[in-house]
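Board notes (copied after class):
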Amino acid sequence: MAKVKAKSKLGTLNKILFIVFIGLLIATILIVALSAPKVPVKETSGDEFVDEAKIDEFTPGTYGGIEFKTVDDVVNYYVEVFNYNKTLTADYTENGEAKKYYKLLGDETLEVQNLLVEGKENNTINKLVPSILGGLFKGAPKGLPPAANRDPVYDERDDGPNGTKLDQKESHLTADDVLACNVVDNKDGTISISIQPKAQLLSMADQDPQGRFFNVLGDISSTVESISVLSFSEGTIEENFVVNYAGGVGTVKVDTKTKEVVEADYEMDVHIDVQHANVAVIKNKNASLDIVYKNHFPASDEFLKESRNIDRK
């Protein structure tokens, strides 16, 4: 049963996304607070958060001709596969210009779910969410997460410890980062490895279990501070704006002869809780939302073309 710990700092691109999320929360608070309740208040639990496994437990054995005795073996193999696949490139054209990107490119989608204020939903804001996100978040092709880019040359982040850059062409995932994992023999020369990293508050790229596995968003403290219409009746931002990464899972299908990933799906789940929020004349409100961020590999030719006018050669 893992408990979560807090970290801090945020990349520029992700600040834009958090402003979107905060804007949605603010709009929801205002709409719900100034209108009649649309549904009954949902029950909330006062129990302490528990990080629970969402996938089957690992069973030692031989899968696809490879022996896995321990969780360490599974994670070490995953890291080896990840690192190898990030050495593979292919030729593309982007807007007619020749490019060399990762051989394995994936898509990305993002959804906001369960927008609640004082346990209440509002149909108006729920209908607006897809159009708001659709206008602000445009998925782009990326390499295996964590990844900042489709081009290996630029696959790095600038929000590392003390302003350092993080090279994301190698995985630093460890067995200690993993809450649950398993291996499945697909009986066709491939195996599927599923990994659920441990939960984390304010996850930072490459600095915690979630950040070593997903494209995490980072800390929101400075972003929240910059929103002039939002304040808190009591407590600090860190106490009142809780961002919990938990429950997300990644699954990769690997050709055991070549160690190439032939298909992969990653789902990062993030829950944001806001307490004691003041928005304009509305005081001391609680709100929450869920973020579901997904990557699928390989990206379709249609996604590459529509998102960035990229063609495979």
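Comment from the instructor: The first helix runs from residue 12 to 33. The first strand starts at residue 61 and ends at 63.
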